[in-house]
Amino acid sequence: MTDTTKHLFCFGLGYSALVFARRLLAKGWRVSGTVRPGADKDRGKMDALRAEGIMVWPFDRDAVLPNADEALLGVTHILTSVPPDAEGDAVFDHHVTDILACKSLKWFGYLSTTGVYGNRDGGLVHEEDVLHPSSTRSQRRAKAELQWQQLFHEENLPLQIFRLAGIYGPGRSPIDSIRRGRVKQRINKPGHIFSRIHVEDIANVLEASLERPDPGRIYNVCDNAPEEPWRVTTRACELIGIAPPPLVSFEAADMTPMARSFWLDNKRVDNSRMLHELGVVLQYPDYETGLQSLL
Can you tell me the distance from the alpha carbon of 276 to that of 84, in angstroms, rounded to the nearest whole number? Predict the structure, then answer.
């Protein structure tokens, strides 16, 4: 039975947001949101989601919500995962007035990235640390965070920010990449670690925030076991019985500029606020349990 008093609207029904949206849909929430218009695969996605019972609207920077007041009517919770582009945050630029006019709104979640901290040479980062984003992508995220935070202070937007580590899960994991033949090398950069988070645990954190809303709060969202990427690849290969690809030095690795940019930052991410304040018990607290679940 649908609970018409709870209505989640997602700006961007992407990989993480859709797991969360489907979970609430199964619990009787009304769920709606946006996908990018234009491409055949996007039109097919819109039709498939509508068949599931999710009301879908086309949206991107060049195609704003045609009837935003109708789309947001009665919405109680908003999640935005649309990444900012070179011009800024398209959701903020086009629909901030519509969001502030949504009188039924109780919770607003913004999915950001731990990339906003920048490089700390393996040091630990906390939510209150000053941001030093290294890449253009992370600089845009930091700017978008600040815009939404200003609305929390000036307009009482019920904002919570979630800084996500590297996301993996079904269809989007080291095991999937290996099986598809996309992993040609393991990159060895001693002491360089990455934090991760299973997509189901992202949904767990977001659900916990619904139960314990704290407007203005920021949460790091990652598991308990940051690790060097080559070790994760090695373990994934072991689990599926495939010989691991060659181990090469970072300097000698064959990577695109985009792929190499992900190695700008080396840090450990503190997730204690997420665990203690939201009472989250991670379903996949480390990459070992996460990889096992994907078999």
Answer: 30
